[in-house]
Every structure is written in structure tokens, then in C-alpha cells.
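input
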Amino acid sequence: MDEGRGGSTGRRLLAYEKRWMASLGLWVTRRRDGVGAGERALGYARAQAAMWYGLLFVCVVETVGATVLLAKLPVAHWVMLVLDVYTLAVVLGLQAAAVTRPHVVGPAGLRVRNGALLDVWIPLERIVSVRYDLRFPKTETAGRGSRGQDEARVLEMAVGSQTCVTVELSEPVTAVKLLGQRVEARTVRFHADEGRAAVAAVREALARREEEREARPAGAGA
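output
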């Protein structure tokens, strides 16, 4: 890896850590990131909550156990305590990021997110169709066509090993992954806690946009 790419990767990882840390503050204050006036939040954190809270419980038990076992070794005790507290913060931060950074649909487009990891903007004019489509992808298929290279690329943003909304696009959108890989996708699949309500919200936004377009005087700008 060359120095420039290594530096870029380091900056991306640092920015990712800042995002999940900031999410903890948003979670405590019951606020959400990127949900403006006239926009609707589409949550997706519920499907993974049991997993993260279960892992958090295990981490708490491990922290208590390590504290007892290392009580007579102060240096090792404090090193392990710092690592354990950081691990607890990471687990909480990942769930907090999913809660406070929901998908968002508004007059301009659909914003699909995966916590602090991935953030994809889809303009409404590129959406050809949206449907409820429950799937259980076995592996991450972001950036791969499922039936060969001639197929439109698919971006799957699974939560709890499932997606339930499929969006077909007229033009590809670009997703930038954590380490900088760029994925061009014309099909986006994501999870929402209320999948059918999410589909209805996107369709409502599309219908409203079409009504506004038809109501414009002839010759008006797009």
C-alpha cells in the first residue's frame, strides 16, 4: 500500500470512529442525524438490537471477570479496563449509529444508510420502481451482478442478515465503502423495520414529485 492510500484509509477510519462516537451523543439526547423538515425517517435498527445488546451483556460480564482476576496486577488491570470500556463504547456506538442515522425520504430523494458505515443518496428522478422484497442474503453482494457482468450491479445493505426493500434505478448511484471502494449500483436493496411502510413512503414521495412536475407551467424549469 502506498503512503497516500494508507493516509486516506487512516482518515476514513478516523472519520468512521468520529461518526459512531457522535452517534452516542445523539442517542443520549434523543436526536437524529440528517432528518430535516418535510422528510420522513425510516428506521432499521430493530432487527439488529438483540444481537448488539446480547454482545454488550457478554462484554460487561467479561469486564467484571477481568477486573476480579487482575485485581492484584494493577498495570494489567488498567490496560484491560481501558480496552474493555472502549469495546463497550464501540458496541453501544454501532447500535446508536443505526438508531440515530435512519434512512430518510424527502421531496428531493431517498437517503439509504447503514449506521456510520455507508451513506447513499438516491435522487427521486432516478427511481424507476420500489417494492417490498424480503430477502436473506448469505454474503455481501455490494457491487456484484447476481447473473453475470451484463446485469445491473446490486448494492445490498442488510441488517440482521435481511433486506426487505428493493429500489430499481434508471441510472446508477455511487456508494463509497469504508475503505474507499466505489460501487456503482442500479439496484439497491436495504432493510427497514417497517418495510411496507417504507415502500409506501417512497411511492408517496414519487407521486408528489410527479404531481408537482405536472402542475408546473409549460416551459418551466425541471
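quick obs: The longest strand covers residues 163-176.
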